[in-house]
Each structure stands twice: as C-alpha cells, then as structure tokens.
Write a structure and sequence with these properties.
Number of strands: 8
Helix content: 25-40%
Oligomer: single chain
Order of helices and strands: EHEHEHEHEEEE
Strand order of the largest sheet: 3-2-4-5-6
Length: about 180
C-alpha cells in the first residue's frame, strides 16, 4: 500500500519550462506594447518566476520589461487563521499609471494571496489593468479570482500542498505535491 504522506513530483522540468515560455508568448500576444507591461512577482514563489518571465519577454519584445515584487502580507484577510509570516519589501519599478501590471505567482489555489496582492498594488497607484499569470492552477477557489495566463492546471486535493522549485535563473524545474 502506498504511503499516504508520500510526495510526488509532476510534471518534468522541460515541460514546466516550456509551459512558462508559452505564458510569455501569450502575454506578448495579449499586450503588444512591451513598454506598457510591468511584471510583479508575488513575494515568495512569484518573484523568481517574474524575473525569468521578464527576461523571456524582453527577448520577445526586443526591449527590457520592468519587473518588481509585491508583499501581500499586510493586506491578507485570513491572518487570524494563518498568522503573520516574515514580510519582504514591495519593490515596484516606477509609476503604475497607464501600465498593464501582470501579477506573477507560482501556485494559485484559494485566491486569497492574489486578492491581497491586488490590494497592495493598488496602494501604490492605479494601473490601466491588472492581469494574473500563474505557473500552476490547482483549483480550490474561495474567491472569484481567475488567472489570465496559466502554465499548467494541476488538480489536487485541498489537503495537499504544492511547492514549485526554480533554478538560479528562475526557470521552473519541479513541482512537488505533498500530503
């Protein structure tokens, strides 16, 4: 009988990297003006992915794409259940007015982190629009949040935890599901 506490890794590294490159191309197709796009990685899992996506989009657009980060911790509505984690800085690369902000996260589940991240971004200004790109969408929404760009849909049980690993360049290399 299988160990109920075992973890599994899915899919393979090359499939993850290919899915993330596809997300870059989808963003470029949806927003032809690369100078109007700002990628904002959600602190912890989304920052390295945003940096990697920025490099990929820079090659597609032929110009650098602005990349920043956002800390949603102080904007969460579930602090009584989760507690406060270590806060990291929000670093946005300039004025948000008339910009397309693409929030980047590694895993989307309930939508609470994304909601808090939108609130945090809006505290710094009003962009033209905010889009959402995630490497893994695992379902289990508690809020009406839907990603605009998805690398992989990965159905999981609500009790499972999904962890994304990246290499030093921010390329996704593994997704582990733990009980």
């Amino acid at each position: 009988m299988a160990d109920p506490n075992a973890s599994r890794t899915v899919p393979e590294a090359d499939a993850l990297a290919r899915a993330w490159r596809r997300v870059a191309h989808e963003i470029a197709e949806a927003h032809a003006d690369g100078g109007a796009v700002i990628l904002v990685g959600i602190q912890r899992g989304g920052v390295a992915l945003a940096q990697h996506l920025g490099e990929t989009l820079g090659g597609i657009y032929g110009q650098a794409v602005a990349v920043g980060s956002v800390e949603p911790g102080l904007h969460r509505d579930d602090l009584s259940q989760r507690g406060m984690a270590e806060l990291r800085p929000t670093e946005l690369p300039g004025d948000l007015a008339n910009k397309v902000v693409v929030l980047i996260d590694d895993v989307l589940s309930t939508g609470r982190t994304v909601r808090a991240s939108i609130d945090a971004v809006m505290a710094f200004g009003r962009p033209q629009c905010i889009r959402l790109a995630v490497l893994i969408d695992r379902g289990h929404r508690e809020l009406p949040i839907r990603p605009d760009f998805v690398g992989k849909n990965l159905p999981t049980h609500p009790d499972e935890h999904v962890e994304v690993r990246t290499d030093n360049s921010g390329t996704p290399i593994a997704v582990t599901i733990k009980k």
